[in-house]
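Following up on my earlier thread - several people asked me to post the actual chain instead of describing it. Fair enough. Here it is, all 403 residues.
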Amino acid sequence: MGWFEIIIAVLIVVEIAFTVQVYSNYHYAMKKYQRERTFRPRCVVIVPCKGLDEAFEENIRSFYEQAYSDFRLWFVVENREDPAYEILLRLKARHRNNPKALDVRILVSGPTAGCSQKLHNLLFAVRQIPDDVEVLVFADSDACVGSNWLSQLVAPLRREGIGLASGYRWFIPKDRHPATLALSAINAKVCQLLGNTRFNLAWGGSMAVRRRDFERLGIEHLWSRALSDDLSISRAIRRAGLRTRFVPACMVASYQSMTWGQLWEFARRQFIITRVYAPRLWLFGLIGALFSVVGLWGSLALTIWGWTVQAPYRLEYTIPFVVFLGCQFFRAVVRQRLASRLLDKDKEALRLVWWVDVLGFWAGGIILAGMILSSAFGRTIVWRQVCYRIHSPTKIEILTKIQ
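Reply from S.P.:
Thanks for posting it. Predicted structure:
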């Protein structure tokens, strides 16, 4: 066997191993997502808000409807002129007789000076938490959570080795624009990497940490100079020798509609933040995305070459293409099955995405690789109408605020 054949064999083994890992993550999610949880620490849920997300009222209502007693529910805005503020007041009045939320507050944090506005809002709330709170829970206003979300999210923290528990988002299309469908399908590629591994990272829209760990690891000081909540806390948790546990039952719906321009801006922002805060993860994502694209199309070219030039070896040269095509098709089916199980109430809205992903996975891979490549340069992003320059994980510069 020559070097060429050895390289092809190694690439096939890597592709199969990756597919096995994805299926293992799927099996883990199916095994865990319906478990009953009895761990009920005293906790506060903090939801920073800026502007009106799509399905904003539905998202906020979902936090009031938790099957969890005596938790604190705090919303934070920058100022009272924010359009979210009046709606939050109205929803608080509507749920004033809610017997589950022990304490509902709508806090006004003021403008930030040294960190992102989101982190400023979170820290403003954290500094007011009473002494009896054991667990801090952070959520995003664009997440629509299930009624068991809170009990499922805090459950892993009963184990000392788990420092952080996190869910993830699944984008539910609000329209049939190709960019909206692509957003959901491409984001699903990221979702399928989460499982029972040591490489999980938190997602700030649905994460929980013990208060004592938050204080012991100096997260408040870390956040006071940072842009990203989830990647920065994930780094601190990992350096402390603790694990981040992915909670499948906390996969939350995020209702979105996008144009191609908005999709590109969103994805580039996410990957730039990842490149700064988790460069090895960014590099792994880039290599993985390029591997999938080059593997699929390179093996197709090899197949054509085998059938036209190397006729005696046409079967051997066809095998790599069959493996890459079959594995990537299988992964698309698995991740869409995951969505239909974890987000059953949105199954109809995801039906078109299922077809787009399963039949167009080859195009999604090209788009994802292009998005990651586009984030290789530059450190300036626009996030929630604020323009930031990220100098390092602990130093950012606020450039302008867009009205």
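Residues 239 and 264 are 32 Å apart (CA to CA). That should answer part of your original question.
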